[in-house]
Amino acid sequence: MDPLFPPFQPENPDPRKGWGRRAIPFRVLIPNVITLLALCAGMSAIRLAIENKLDLAIGCIVVAALLDGIDGRVARYLKGTSKFGAELDSLADFVNFGVVPGIVLYFWGLHDLRSLGWIGSLVFAICMVLRLARFNVTSADPNRPPYQSNFFTGMPAPAGACTVLLPIYLSFLGLAHEPSHAMFELAYVLLIAFLMISTIPTFSGKKLGTRIPREWVLPIFVVAVVVVLLLAFNPWETLTAITLIYLATIPFGIVYYRRQARAYQATQEKAAPQEAPDQPSA
Fold first, then answer.
1. Predicted local confidence at residue 45, as pLDDT
2. Domain tally, the chain
3. What CA–CA distance (Å, rounded) separates 64 from 212?
4. Are 83 and 139 in contact (CB under 8 A)?
5. In terms of Cα–Cα distance, which of 150, 165, 163 is closest to 252?
6. Entry pTM
7. Could you say which DSSP state residue 276 is in?
């Protein structure tokens, strides 16, 4: 008697084309595991925000941002980059840095504006997904000038998530949250959302860590340890200072980007072959 549901068997199976039969290098899995850990941290932040544990929720967002900065570098160092990993990273970034901060801000103070506050959270999440979609498209452009790799177009996702939470940092520092402040907080959220989808160049930092001069190794170690200790013992002061310093660097990024663009254009004009004048016919 024939089985009711016979297994599918292709007519000409080719084991070389079966993706399920090919072993995946372990180095490819490590960056994806880090990305999934970041996603777990972001999702945990939503639960903590619902339970009104906003300090722990922000801590989870910061952890997700740190893991997001690590996974790409680990993938490049291990030569484990893949299209799957890039898509997974982009989807996790939308949740961690678009959905989660919007929900945290709404539970914290934007709910005082009722529907208007929720619209602000939605606009932030929408701008985040638009920013990520644009990044996925433009990063694959082979015709980009080399100097543009040092800059992001608009504020990057992790920076946007950590920067938009500045009003919460200030509230933990003693600046009391009042319902009358909600409109100013909403305006700040919309400003950060605009910076993410804008074409304003911001420093990338993606090439940091590839080659470091020897004389800078020890100072970098000291600075990294100091920052971690400050985050552990004075988190709100440290996060506020980092946010304000980052916002202050945006004008310098614009100036430096324009300077790099002018230098690149001048180089291209010098390298362009000169057109020979027309020779008179005999």
1. 96
2. 1
3. 25
4. no
5. 150
6. 0.83
7. P
